């Protein structure tokens, strides 16, 4: 009884102030289908009072304003309507007429304030919930591939990295992903977490994507674009919604190799939102995805043109363990010293180095390809008054996915949480949030495989025993028997591999389990990343106080607490704290009879890893020279502090091989480059071939510093006859202190360059550093959208990105084809009561050269033409729908990057309940 009384007391407090108010009830329907129209704004004219229709088009509004009054009914996709209400005695029944939304879309991210997309000062692409619901793709992250200016790298099901304007790589730290105002980056690794803790499929209200530089508004690491995602407001979008997709992938064809048999694909999503009263609302979301993942099968040899059957030093891009490579000449010389009669066989071999790699393991059967993702979200909103709202939310994600970087990483049992508290009004907000990550039992494919090889048989032990001495002995025996050199090498490998821990064997599984569960700092390959991010920010719109222009200002504080137990960063004793402080202001003014919109932004940022702060700016002008015809020009000075990885990474990447940040503190203190100088790895290889020390080239390094870009853009957007919208643009950018990667080596403990002759006495590093020369990028794009009436819509976009005077000593991650073409065609409702709908998309890319950061692989990505399609039928009385569709319907396998998986078709059927 006490609990019941307490609950009633709380509800009465939430309802306080409405005892003497009146209630208007009603229903709003779509005039074409006679269905209830959900999420329609019902606003009392000349008042702050208002509400939204629920999932069945019903509304209930408690008002204090006296009758008669006027209700303004509005929603994107419908004609706005005003309704006179004389009293609350009769329910309001209204039909709204559907209308084209072309050119009426509004965006927020371009200027941190609401404006029409058509008149945005910078290039922006957008996805709304209605577009997502009619898409043939399995999720909205896949839809983003078809937006103008976008490049993606798909590492696996569940891990898609997004970028714009050419700089494309997996885990791009220069692309910012914002979810409900929160930076969605991994606290330690600094790249966006993709769909791991982003919005669930049913909770997406809007996705806005800014192409190119955007750090003047969104801070560091916005050089390659920013994506802003907004979840659905539980006051506006109510009810229970369910989306169940069952499919099949890995369907065999006669053209492409796929080691996985046909297997099921599952994706289940649920959302429930409830407005308890005019003050209190909540929502809960959950999504679970499970499938057999696509597998990376790139067999290209990283050590030369040969194959694993022709090159003894074969190291395949997706064959792991072959990075252990040794010159067997010392073993040949030892055999010659023991038996001089072998000279006719051995002397011809000793005229050059004879490198031999250990036998690698293919990805399939080595990395677990069972992809799983689970994410849950809850949010509570309380309206303190009509202009002030408090929000608390939490999102948690976990699962198993694979990620591509300097090798392939199976991120197993990872856990990420993001939690927010916010108070906002029409003119300001204060927000605080935190993100925590747990790397789980991540398996680093390359180093783990190398240690597995060492575990079942050591490479060598004092030139007496081990895999290489056995290999050398078997090689000489085959040659003595008259075998050709290539056949002798194959026979030697077969002999040395006797007793090998084969994939799936108890010995293999035991070694893999032991190594991958031993921390890197203790000789294994386990990450122990438990890093956290803390962020607090506030923004105020001064427009009500400053009448002659629009003024927005804000401040931001951030703390990265890097805690990897010395497995990712040099945080041996305690976490490393990196702080950032920011402040920004934006000024905007309309002149020339409101035809010309001018705006400028300034931002100040300080990162405690670097001595100097950064001040960045943006200026733009938008001129409406004819109604619904806009010319825009913008200049942006953007920057990026080196990410935590680019500055501080200290990770074992293989036997005597490290992935490294570019901080001189790290390079001098940890690697002692100031005592034992580094040389480019390419020149070390030349020295080994020639024996001439003059071939060695010093790697000149400095403390890594922020990179920056000055970007100019000119564009033209127009809406013609309310049926055709097109947008064209061109841009030119100049990059300074561009951060790329270089492969270098040094010989710890000695500065004698002859030590480089023995592969096992020097250490390799893949190091982030600033290029000394300016780098220029440029490009152009165009898009056309046509409303063909009767709910038919067609869209086409084309874009092209290029780089010139690039620094060839760096891996710059400019991985993009010469052009992209995307085509969409669909209908959101036709036939009786508009029960049928369909959607089709085509994405075409010509072949292009792709380089993976960290030296994993490089090569030509083949051209691809990917067609997705779906057809849906609506069960009106059951408030449900059935969809039949396929992604990559032709099942022509394609890849988005070298050493990444080949992606085939997914054929699916979807049941949707109460999808708004």
TrEMBL record:
InterPro entries for this protein:
Beta-barrel_TonB_sf (IPR036942), CarboxyPept-like_regulatory (IPR008969), Plug_dom (IPR012910), Plug_dom_sf (IPR037066), TonB-dep_rcpt-like (IPR039426)
The positions making up the signal sequence are 1-21
Q: Which UniProt keywords apply?
A: Cell outer membrane, Membrane, Receptor, Signal, Transmembrane, Transmembrane beta strand, Transport
Entry GO CC: cell outer membrane
| PROSITE patterns according to UniProt | TONB_DEPENDENT_REC_3
Predominant cellular place of this UniProt entry's protein: membrane
Question: Where does this one sit in the cell?
Answer: Cell outer membrane
| Gene Ontology MF annotations | siderophore uptake transmembrane transporter activity
Which Gene Ontology biological process is one annotated for this entry? siderophore transmembrane transport
Q: Where is the TonB-dependent receptor plug domain?
A: 117-226
- State the annotated membrane topology for this chain: Multi-pass membrane protein
Which Pfam family, any one, appears in the UniProt record?
A: CarbopepD_reg_2
| Protein family per UniProt | Belongs to the TonB-dependent receptor family.
Q: What is this protein called?
A: TonB-dependent Receptor Plug Domain
